[in-house]
Design goal:
With 119 residues, this protein is mainly alpha-helical. The protein has helices at residues 2-25, 32-49, 59-63, 70-78, 87-90, 96-102; strands at residues 52-53, 106-107. The two termini are 35 Å apart. The chain has two domains: 2-49; 52-107, DNA polymerase, domain 1 (Orthogonal Bundle). The protein is elongated and about 60 Å long.
């Protein structure tokens, strides 16, 4: 899913670049500042939609999530490692409302691996 959104945002940035090149080729003037802002916005969108690994994310990345304060980011970091993102709820690290607002932006590397049990 994160690859899809990142590819979409990258495609938008590429389309803006091609449009600017076409305008220049046609001899039309372009507003470079507007183009620069549009490309920067597309890059920010691509960065915003990518998922972050809660086991390796920096404090700034966690605090940038909706509803996550600096104190909550510290609490998330203090309780690492996580087996999956639902551990945030089961360990009572975040509330259900905060979890619902950030769950699509989180993942845990290896969380798709089979659960290991004692033999």
């Amino acid at each position: 899913m994160k690859g899809t959104f990142a590819a979409l945002a990258g495609g938008v940035a590429a389309a803006l670049g091609f449009a600017a090149a076409w305008e220049l080729k046609q001899g039309r003037g372009i507003n470079r500042e507007k183009l620069r802002r549009a490309v920067a916005g597309a890059k920010d969108t691509a960065q915003a939609v990518t998922e972050i690994d809660i086991n390796t994310a920096r404090r700034e990345q966690l605090a940038a999530l909706p509803g996550v304060s600096g104190e909550l980011a510290d609490r998330i970091m203090d309780n690492r490692p996580y087996r999956n993102k639902l551990d945030l709820l089961s360990r009572l690290i975040v509330s259900g409302d905060v979890y619902n607002s950030i769950k699509r932006r989180l993942h845990v590397d290896g969380s798709n691996d089979a659960v290991k049990t004692a033999s």
